[in-house]
Design goal:
The chain is of the alpha/beta class. It is built from 15 helices and 17 strands. The protein has a ten-stranded mixed sheet with strand order 1-2-5-4-3-6-7-8-16-17, with helices on both faces. α1 runs parallel beside α11. The radius of gyration is 23 Å and the shape is globular. The chain starts with 6 loop residues before the first strand and ends with a helix. Its EC number is 1.4.1.1. Belongs to the AlaDH/PNT family. It is an enzyme of class 1 (oxidoreductase). This is alanine dehydrogenase.
């Protein structure tokens, strides 16, 4: 008989009795969702609806109390969906698979189980040699969700968060162009008889596409720069308009920036850290009160004057140009971002359970394998090996030796 109400114990909220399992052949995995430590991170990987699906399929979800509050999901929402809500972070971190947004701290890694699986962002710009060594000491299989691919070679998490960041970035620009934020006192777009806002976007990927859509919808003039002709051609086709596009060269870019009210750095690193394409001299020649937003700051950014900021102190000025360099822009709209992440990870976790664990996922699916950077005590990412002076092993060879 199902329990009438969730009960509170010394450990936490005990969920109502789950409905009958849909899959009877799935391995009963434990999924841990600890509360994010960073006050800047408001997203959560799984929504209560997703937890309900996992619980109905025989998986055990352990959620630290308050993990979803910043995205407006209560502990009761999760408990009613079948999660075990606990007051101990250590209990959530001890699960077989730990799902996080931010990479765990060294203290959190100490509480993770030997040989468990971590799925989180890697955040290359913030990582250290000690972090990699701590993962390997516990033989944790670590998966960077920004490197996960889908069946057609796309990066679903990157694309989803880029769509959100691109759509949000123009709202941010509009805020800081306003006179109340000591900006230029411009409306994003334009009105009759007044020239429209000039927007320069460096990069022609997903962030650029969604930023351009928003800017065009508001009536702004946009110029898009990228060194890949196929990306420039694609963004014109996707937008359905004859926008200004150019390859990145110092003269054309400098000229465009000198006239720009808003500059969006939307380049994504292809191998490791981003390259600087906007020099301090270009920034100094911009009109005072203009705004720069470097969306790729978590990978080093593409603007020489950019440095990482936070949601609490998001902007600073150099040469009287406002710089906004917050790495997790999607966290501004935490509920939307959480639903988007949950849509991606729910089927992945179900597949993992069907196969019997994360190791089987690595062996069976190349798109999942792409995200792995440590495996059973070995670093498997060549870029991290070079960055921190650590030896690395090819994951394919490790798997071949094991199987």
């Amino acid at each position: 008989m199902p329990a009438e109400l969730s009960e509170i114990s010394a450990v936490g909220l005990i969920p109502k009795e789950s409905p009958a399992k849909v899959r009877k052949d799935s391995k009963s995995l434990t999924i841990g969702i600890p509360k994010e430590i960073s006050s800047q991170e408001k997203r959560v990987v799984l929504t209560p609806e997703a937890v309900g699906i996992l619980s109905n399929n025989g998986l055990s979800v352990i959620l630290e109390t308050g993990a979803g509050l910043q995205a407006k999901f209560s502990d009761q929402d999760y408990s009613d969906a079948g999660a075990k809500v606990v007051y101990s972070k250590k209990e959530a971190l001890a699960a077989e698979i730990v799902l996080k947004i931010d990479a765990p701290t060294l203290e959190e890694l100490e509480d993770m189980s030997q040989g468990s699986c971590l799925i989180s962002a890697i955040q290359l710009g913030r990582q250290s040699k000690e972090f990699i060594e701590a993962l390997n000491a516990k033989k944790i299989t670590a998966v960077a969700f920004e490197y996960l691919e889908d069946k057609v070679g796309g990066m679903p998490v990157v694309r989803a968060m880029s769509e959100i960041a691109g759509s949000t970035v123009m709202q941010i620009a509009a805020e800081y162009l306003s006179s109340v934020n000591d900006g230029k006192g411009l409306i994003m777009g334009g009105v009759t008889g007044v020239p429209p806002t000039q927007v320069v976007i460096v990069g022609a990927g997903t962030v650029a596409e969604y930023a351009a859509r928003t800017a065009l919808g508001l009536g702004a003039n946009i110029k898009v720069f990228d060194n890949h002709i196929y990306k420039l051609r694609r963004i014109k086709q996707l937008l359905g308009q004859q926008i200004y596009t150019s390859t990145i060269d110092n003269f054309s870019l400098s000229q465009a920036m000198a006239e720009a009210d808003v500059v969006i750095g939307a380049l994504r690193a292809e191998k490791g850290r981003n390259k600087i394409v906007i020099s301090e001299e270009m920034v100094a020649n911009m009109m005072h009160g203009s705004i720069i937003i470097d969306v790729g700051i978590d990978q080093g950014g593409c603007i020489e004057t950019a440095r990482m900021t936070t949601h609490d102190e998001p902007v600073y000025k150099i040469h009287d140009i406002i710089h906004y360099c917050v790495p997790n822009i999607a966290s501004r709209v935490a509920r939307t971002a959480s639903y988007s992440l949950s849509n991606i990870f729910t089927p992945i976790i179900l597949q993992t359970a069907d196969l019997g664990g994360a190791e089987e996922m690595i062996f069976n699916y190349k798109w999942f394998l792409r995200g792995v950077y440590t495996y059973r005590g070995s670093l498997t990412n060549a870029y991290l090996g070079r960055k921190f002076g650590l030896s690395h092993k090819e994951l394919q060879l490790l798997l071949a030796a094991r199987y």
